[in-house]
Amino acid sequence: MTVFSRLVDEFLAEHFRLDPVDATATGMHAHDASWPDLSEAGERALLEHLVRWERTFGELRDPDLGPDERIDRDQLLLELEAMRFAVVELRQDRWDPLSIVYLLGEGLFLLLAREFAPLADRLRSVAGRLEGIPGLLLAAGSRLGTDPDRPVSRFHAETALAQLGGITDLAHDALAQAEAAAGADVPAAGAAVPAALVDRIRTATAAAAGALAAFEAHLRDVVLPAAEGEGRLGPDLFARKMRRSLMSPSPAPDEILERAEREFAAVRREMVAIARRIWPAWLPDRPLPDASGGGGAEAAEDRIVRDVLAAVAGEHQPADRLPEFCREEVARIETFCRDHDVVGLASEPLSIEWTPVFLRAFAKAMLIAPGPLDRGEKTFFAITPIADDATPEEAESSLREDNDRMLRVMTIHEAVPGHYLQLAWSNRCPSLVRSVFQSGVFAEGWAVYVEQVLMDLGYGADDPALLLTHWKLYLRAVINAIVDVRVHTRDMAEAEAIDLMVRGGFQEEAEARAKYGRARLSSTQLSTYFVGSMGMWDLERERRRRLAAASGDPRGAAAVPEPRVVGGFGETPGFVYREHLEEVLSHGSPPLPILRRLVLGDQA
Fold first, then answer.
1. Packing angle between helix 322-339 and helix 404-414, nearest 10 degrees?
2. Burial class (CB in 10 A: 0-12, 13-18, 19+), 2
3. pTM
4. HEC profile for 345-364?
5. What is the pLDDT of residues 148-167, one digit of tens each?
6. Which of 15, 80, 86, 11 is nearest to 51 (CA)?
7. How does strand 350-354 pair with strand 379-383?
8. Residue 453 neighbours by CB distance under 10 Å
9. Residue 366 in 3-state DSSP?
């Protein structure tokens, strides 16, 4: 081991001890029964840890490190700066009650959803975390409302109250799993759950439920009446957080907004052109809308796209066949990738199943991936079924939204070559730093980017309605960034946001209202899909230009055209997609500035 690798091991051991939930997410399970210390003393210990390791890694000089070690050192310094920003400047635990709900949910959810160990072993850790909930909530409650510059956000407090019951549900689900498996005759060692553990979980569940009820009363009766905050970060704090999220000063929020608005117009033009072209196939008995229908040319274009999308939505699976359809789609995508030599596929197990009952309130679909240190474990692509109490109209609306083509694009994004494949490659990266500290901008950007890559390479080329559906989803990513920046820096009102999403992005009103709420509850995350994908396209274009210039082609870098909208570059001398995609995937999930250094050799 080198000096640097020993320091990394020491840092990670200390980091995981201070942040046990992050340790669980990463696949380091020595602290699965613990919570982070949310007290003032715990915060001081965390800050001392961050400052000390920033100084330690910052003192390492280039001549004493290998090339990969220099990359890892620089990424660690960016990660440490982002963590310190969260503690010193963002101080979310003082004004956002929802942050404790997310911490509780993740801490229990990961132990129940991931099968990294026998159920009995994971339930012992669940018991420890349940037993720690009363103390955790006492510490969290004492911090709320203590930031003199930022009062508690009323909307965050109201949402926390609405979602807190889900934590109690997770505790009861853990108890139900323990009771169901008690004394089970299972051949796997440690799989049966002893009666004593069931009793321990039952006692811990009762204590946790009591503490959660007391915390709910504190939020409702003490915190909420005094909650005068809005939750919007404002231009300065949002810009500082964006810099830490991207781990780069560029692009700044105004640059993101400007580029997203240009992309918004370009994508809509593409959608209008496709919808016009395929109107006769989907609506053969109806005349193409024109400006004479009222509202002018723009209104006519909106009707054309909306009506074609509505017709496309009519082709959907029966309610009981969604996982089977996605399994078939994964097979189709992988066959296409092999036949067209797109990218090396993963051998790690992938299971596409219904979402477990205790997770169905979280999302309609999700990827439950192993942590980067839980290598070789199964990944779950979970699809939430229609609720048993849904009306026929509600069920049909849900199936129309998740129609056949929407499921195909979703499978690209979530599975192959999106999140599942990317994370499988990331977990193979020999750099521990780049495996453990995974950039959300990289991950979400990759998943959006490869949707278009597959379209450019001809996937579904015989089905222009699939491309139209893809553009609808991509437009959603673009609008996410616009709403994110405008909400936090320009006080975007709900009516303006809903109009942009519904009229401009062809979304349903219920979906748009939920997204506006998400934009107020989060900050910078909604921008990661668009900013990350733009970073991926900028990287590809620059690599194409350099390869074209080095190929001897007389056009040089000019052989790479300016795209009308993302993608669509065509052939470039010296550029091979498989080589490029695998080069991007081979370095873990680093921040985009680090990725550019690794792929292009850029040192900026």
1. 60
2. exposed
3. 0.95
4. CCCCCEEEEECCHHHCCCCC
5. 999 999 999 999 999 999 99
6. 80
7. parallel
8. 22
9. strand
